Amino acid sequence: MNPSNTPRFRLGTRRSPLAMAQAEEARARLAAARGIDAAHIEIVPVTASGDRIQDRALADIGGKALWTKELDAWLTAGEIDFAVHSAKDVETIRPPEIAIGAVLPREDVRDVLVGAASIAALPRNAVVGTSAPRRAAQLLHARPDCQVITFRGNVATRLAKLAAGEADATFLALAGLNRLGETGTGHPLDAEDWLPAPGQAAILIECRADDTRTQGFLAAIDDAPSREAVLAERALLAALGGNCHSPIAVLTQRVGDTLAMRAALYSPDGAERVEGEARFAADDREAPAKLAADLLTRAVPAITVHFTGPAA
């Protein structure tokens, strides 16, 4: 491609170290796929509300929108052409003027436990730092003796809190550690036993729904298997009607031409759990909704009170 004729694109991202690493990955993939210099894709960082507010749980101050609202505003105003997000941080119901332009190849979906070799190895009455309702509920389900305290901040901040003795252990996403080059940190938890968050380890790129130029540009790096799994998990979320207080865990794996999905819902205190699974064609959006309905039908009130079911 002739550099003088190469269109320039503006890539919006949060300023956190992990978000910047994900933006750099997206830019490098696009440059390689399109045969252009990465300089033709300008990274435009923004400080998201979720990055500014660190002393309260995300679910208590506005939920996932705190990661996306600034970039959404820039995107719809035309100040950026596309935005890069962690898929697990993007609200299930999105504005109609915003579309998913690409999903990058999904990284390792496992969580990492830092501070102990396993959940069973945590000391009795261990203090564990996390701000994720899913992780808190899973931990308390397995180890009701543990105490959960709120840990927020980027990877470095949480590791510093742990080193300072604020908690005995904490959780991190292995994908994030890998993207930051922090290999060897903590102990990965088996995803079959410790189900990850919906969308975990996937990078999602959004653009304007009417911007066919950018959609065509992004299509070169869209990974179909990752997109199918992420969209299936988002379909499950939509049918459950959960929110940032709702502990949801799901593992989706490709099996031949189908997707195998295992999902579990918890009460926030971990005392109650319901699990189900389904196998379906990759483009079947009804199957995740049926799994959601089955889970809600079998769940006890301590779980269902945190879910509204499908949006009207």
Please, could you describe this protein's structure?
The protein is an alpha/beta fold and 312 residues long. Helix content is 32%, strand content 23%. It has helices spanning 17-34, 49-52, 65-76, 133-142, 155-163, 174-179, 212-218, 224-240, 286-298, 301-304, and strands at residues 9-14, 41-46, 82-86, 98-103, 111-114, 127-129, 147-149, 169-173, 187-188, 203-208, 248-255, 258-266, 273-281. The strands form 3 sheets. It has a 5-stranded mixed β-sheet, sandwiched between helices. A 5-stranded mixed β-sheet has the order 7-6-8-5-9, with helices on both faces. A 3-stranded antiparallel β-sheet has the order 11-12-13. Strand 1 (9-14), helix 1 (17-34) and strand 2 form a beta-alpha-beta unit. Helix 8 runs parallel beside helix 9 (286-298). The relative contact order is 0.14.
Contiguous low-pLDDT stretches (5 residues minimum) are 50-64
The count of helical stretches stands at 10
Topology as a string of helices (H) and strands (E):
EHEHHEEEEHEHEHEEHHEEEHH
Mean pLDDT: 91
Largest sheet, spatial ordering of strands: 2-1-3-10-4
What portion of the residues fall into strands of 2 or more residues? 15-25%
- Evaluate the radius of gyration: 19 Å
The total count of strands amounts to: 13
Assembly context of the chains: single chain
Q: Assign the structural class, choosing from mainly alpha, mainly beta, alpha/beta, alpha+beta, or little secondary structure.
A: alpha/beta
Measured between the Cα atoms of the first and last residue, the distance is: 47 Å
What characterizes the major β-sheet? Answer: 5 strands, mixed
Shape: globular
Helicity level: 25-40%
